[in-house]
Amino acid sequence: MSPTAARITAVDTHDIRFPTSRELDGSDAMNPDPDYSAAYVVLRTDAADGIEGHGFSFTIGRGNDVQVAAIDALRAHVVGRSVGELCADPGTLFRDLIGDSQLRWLGPEKGVMHMAIGAVVNAVWDLAAKRAAKPLWQFLADAEPAWLVDQIDFRYITDALTPEEALELLRRGRRGAAERAARLREKGFPAYTTSPGWLGYDDEKLTRLATQAVADGFTQIKLKVGADLADDTRRCRVARSAVGPGIRIAIDANQRWNVAEAITWTKALAEFDPYWIEEPTSPDDILGHAAVRRAVAPVKVATGEHVQNRIVFKQLLQAGAIDILQIDAARVGGVNENLAILLLAAKFGVPVCPHAGGVGLCELVQHLSMFDFVALSGTTDDRVIEYVDHLHDHFLDPVVIREGHYTAPAAPGFSATMRPESIARYTYPGGTFWAADLAQQKGEAA
């Protein structure tokens, strides 16, 4: 079959879960026992090249089956589409998926359905970049600015960013792009690590991992806070002692506080010179974030991993509510919507420091930041990508960290392809790990 005639023949889904709660990996004040999980999707085609598109939504355990069901609900929009047309214009599918009037009622453009759309749309971009034989960051950086603008849905955001302004930002961003791409391949993109700072870790583990992070070249670490002020004070003191005065320490409350509490708590920890306070309150509370920002300066305010769409990001920027914008590769409607958010951040001059970690989020979001550096913002100043050293070995093209920097991916695609053996082992509940685990629990209960 010729490439032009190839069609999407299947949308395969998998409920993949990892038992991370057993070591308290990922533990924070709001999520004490996460089992990092992926509602995983594979787009198969009848093209002779056999290339597949891979994507996923990230969850933390229970409910991953609900997320899989949401992806399944989109199958009819995808199967039968022309592979060539889909890869030439992923925006057509993005608009069709967010525009399904009956499914839209479940959002609109937020929650489980929107995350499902993001998983499918990201799988299309993975397919497109693989067919172009480029890593996604390069595929985006090489794209014509007018084409990138056509990928974006400007509905609800033109009061802050027009298509004409976006086009000018992208045209300006291309100047010097080749030199920045070469620099990226040579030096990578700055990273910071959250690995030392999980709330469930004891002081010895915190000290050991923080000290190791500095030795590995990281210039910023992050600590989870928000459950107990006395405990947070002690842990911040331990971390500052371990890393010294020249290393940035960010703190992350994971939405735990009311506005007044966020202000009081952040000020109480100010003696440890926190670089930013992340998710100090509800991700939907724009005015609350603005109030916190005014009160806790010079500590910066960061949020975004639970911001549901480009419209909320627009308002956070318009309200002067954040110093740091944190995109998430799998929370919003995929690459298309993240392009809109990156452009909004560029318009307002706010640095983007993505959320990562989880299952595969590091693998995905590195591409978006690298595109931003090469072909939009043109800088890595005050920009870092989160790094967490969990679960990378389950991917065929895992992230590589060198001297505190993300190495630029070279393999074609979005770095989303999970190893078949990992899918077979950790699919819930029938994968080999979970089947044996559930049988053991049943035996112990008897």
From TrEMBL:
Domain Mandelate racemase/muconate lactonizing enzyme C-terminal: 203-299
E.C. no: 4.2.1.68
Pfam families for this protein: MR_MLE_C, MR_MLE_N
Taxonomic lineage of the native organism: Bacteria, Bacillati, Actinomycetota, Actinomycetes, Kitasatosporales
Gene3D superfamilies (UniProt xref): Enolase-like C-terminal domain, Enolase-like, N-terminal domain
Top-level taxon in the UniProt lineage: Bacteria
GO molecular function annotations of the record: L-fuconate dehydratase activity; magnesium ion binding
Catalytic reactions on record: L-fuconate = 2-dehydro-3-deoxy-L-fuconate + H2O
Keywords for the protein's UniProt record, in alphabetical order: Lyase, Magnesium, Metal-binding
GO biological process, one term: carbohydrate catabolic process
InterPro entries per UniProt: Enolase-like_C_sf, Enolase-like_N, Enolase_C-like, L-fuconate_dehydratase, Mandel_Rmase/mucon_lact_enz_CS, Mandelate_racemase_C, Mandelate_racemase_N_dom, RHMD-like
Protein's name according to its UniProt entry: L-fuconate dehydratase
Keyword match Metal-binding: yes
Organism: Streptomyces avermitilis
Cofactor entry: Mg(2+)
